[in-house]
């Protein structure tokens, strides 16, 4: 059940990104989460808020005709921590990204993303 619970959080991240569901995206991240990575040559270090706002300000990828696909390529759970890798193609058109997530089971027993490290490929 634990691995399935972690997988569901990552799948909700993917679905929220695809459908521009900002409420779903807010629920998968821990309040103290951080996002770091590269969009092309630009280094970004922030909370998930700018990402969520950006996704919410654009037409949902499901409505844009973009061939967005995302696949969980790695998932490991160790006790109350987990890591997952997601490979995304068609991100707002032609973007290809690899995301590395760290998750933690919070004090209420819910899995949340605490960090996302990403890079465009």
TrEMBL record:
It holds the Pfam family Lumazine_bd_2. The lineage of its organism: Bacteria, Bacillati, Bacillota, Bacilli, Lactobacillales. This is Nuclear transport factor 2 family protein. InterPro entries: FrzH/put_lumazine-bd.
């Amino acid at each position: 059940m634990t691995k399935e619970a972690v997988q569901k959080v990552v799948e909700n991240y993917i679905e929220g990104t695809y459908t521009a569901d900002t409420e779903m995206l807010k629920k998968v991240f821990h309040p103290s989460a951080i996002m770091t990575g590269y969009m092309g040559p630009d280094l970004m270090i922030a909370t998930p808020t700018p990402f969520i706002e950006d996704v919410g300000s654009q037409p949902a990828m499901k409505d844009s005709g973009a061939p967005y696909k995302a696949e969980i390529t790695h998932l490991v759970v160790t006790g109350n921590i987990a890591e997952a890798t997601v490979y995304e193609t068609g991100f707002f058109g032609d973007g290809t990204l690899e995301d590395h997530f760290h998750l933690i089971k919070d004090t209420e027993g819910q899995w949340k993303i605490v960090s996302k490290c990403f890079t465009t490929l």
